[in-house]
Amino acid sequence: MSVSAARLFVKRHSELKALADTLPVDIEGYGQRATKDFVDKFDNLGSEVDNKSKNSS
């Protein structure tokens, strides 16, 4: 994963976490799960990009 993509991910993750932290108690679990899902999906995408980059070199 490129450095700029990693920085963007960190920024977006921080923004999502901040939003999730402001949710009312009765729905904060949804926000936390959504943030975790985002992190997991982005990690998978980063791995796919890295693998394709290695295979095309």
Explain what this protein looks like in three dimensions.
The protein has 57 residues and is mainly α. It has two helices and no strands. It has helices at 3-21, 28-56. Helix 1 runs antiparallel to helix 2. The mean pLDDT is 83.
Average the pLDDT over all residues and give the rounded result. Answer: 83
H/I helix tally? 2
N- to C-terminal separation?
A: 14 Å
Which quaternary structure do these chains form?
single chain
Content-based structural category: mainly alpha
Shape: elongated
N-to-C order of helices and strands: HH
Number of strands: 0
Please report which band the strand proportion falls in: under 5%, 5-15%, 15-25%, 25-35%, 35-45% or over 45%: under 5%
Amount of helix: over 70%
Poorly predicted runs of 5 or more residues: none
